[in-house]
Amino acid sequence: MHDETARQILAELTRLSRAVEALAPPRPDEIDFDAAACFVWDADRQHLAPVTRPNRIEISLIKGVDHVRDILVDNTHRFARGLPANNVLLWGARGMGKSSLVKAVHASLAAEHDLPAPLKLIEIHREDINSLPALMTILRPAPARFMLFCDDLSFDHDDTAYKSLKAALDGGIEGRPDNVLLYATSNRRHLLPRDMIENERSTAINPSEAVEEKVSLSDRFGLWLGFHKCSQDEYLEMVTGYAAHFELDPDPDSLRSEALEWSTTRGARSGRVAWQFIQDLAGRLGKPL
Q1: Other C-beta atoms within 10 Å of 151: how many?
Q2: What are the beta bridge partners of residue 132?
Q3: Which of 144, 142, 124, 140 is nearest to 132 (CA)?
Q4: Dist CA 11 CA 97 (whole Å)
Q5: Euclidean distance between CA atoms 100 and 249, whole angstroms
Q6: How far is CA 75 from CA 71, 83, 113, 147, 168, in A?
Q7: Shortest CA distance to 165 belongs to which of 197, 191, 139?
Q8: Quick one: pLDDT at residue 200?
Q9: Chain centroid to CA 156: how far?
Q10: How many CA atoms does the CB half-sphere of 11 hold within 13 Å?
């Protein structure tokens, strides 16, 4: 009788154990850091998906941002060499090449053959910010150096993910891994909407402390690189640079007038608008890019 009861208990425990195992998240796939130079973080699978053909342009084609370009190159170069470097927030006008510059800088430096360790670029989506600690744990022992890149980073009302970002930038008790640096782009210098900050000021018991809590997020980035709307001359320089690079060879006067008309219809001048014009021009000329 006792043996039968013991067998029943053992069978029930086995069934419960299997049920618990079935509920557990899948074991993370083994990551091959040599598979590519660029990866995308898959938070659900706790995995880095290699990107074999990144969408990026040559750094020489990014015009009108020479000063911030040089600062970003220098900061990234020091990081790639194992020297101290800062997290970077690239903020400002839309379409002025913030994300393109990050990818281009990585491409230009990752191609150097005498780096002490491979330089990898990892894109993390805005909605996966809460998984940053898990990603840091994976990257800490890896034999490479990593630029974490979050494009169009910002936070809205009732969004508490910014607290996870602050903790990840500071690194908690372990500190941020020496082989990890975070680059983020945003249209907002403080990553939070102004009315959200003002609301904190008006409703808090100590308004200054509440605002400090919000604004201090951007302070975790050692470098703030501002991108501003380009002038007409800078816009035309972008257009002519693209046209020369892709050997479109249009008439210079026609190129200028058509490019200006294109920007007028768009109501803006930027690197993105210049690239969209070049795509239209190449299509009309029957030339692939």
Answers
A1: 17
A2: none
A3: 124
A4: 62
A5: 24
A6: 6, 9, 18, 11, 20
A7: 191
A8: 46
A9: 18
A10: 6
Can you tell me the distance from the alpha carbon of 44 to that of 28, in angstroms, rounded to the nearest whole number?
Answer: 10
What is the 3 state secondary structure string of 266-289? Answer: HCCCCHHHHHHHHHHHHHHHCCCC
pLDDT score, position 191: 65
220 alpha carbon, distance to own chain's centre = 16
CA distances to 133, 151, 160, 174, 282 from 130, in Å? 7, 15, 9, 17, 42
What pLDDT, on a 0 to 100 scale, did the predictor assign at position 107? Answer: 96
Q: How many Cβ atoms from other residues are within 10 Å of residue 169's Cβ?
A: 17
Amino acid in position 145: R
CA–CA distance, 260 with 270 (Å, rounded to integer): 12
**262 is written with which tokens?**
């294109």
Q: How many residues does the chain have?
A: 289
pLDDT at 149: 96
**Residue 139 structure tokens:** 């990257």
- What's the distance, CA 22 to chain centroid? 34
Task: Give pLDDT < 50 ranges for the chain.
Answer: 194, 196-198, 200-207, 209-211
Cα torsion at 135, 140, 145, 150 (round to 10°)? 20
Distance in angstroms (rounded) separating the CA atoms of residues 69 and 58: 12
Class of domain 38-227: alpha beta
Instruction: Tell me if 154 sits within 8 A of 187, measured CB to CB.
Output: yes
* Chain centroid offset of residue 238 CA: 23
Helix residue ranges per DSSP H, the chain: 2-23, 66-80, 98-110, 132-139, 161-170, 194-203, 207-219, 232-245, 252-266, 271-285
How far apart are alpha carbons 33 and 48 in whole angstroms?
A: 9
Q: Which residues contact 48 (CB under 8 A, 6 or more apart)?
A: 31, 33, 39, 40, 41, 42, 122, 138
Report domain extents, the chain.
Answer: 38-227, 232-285
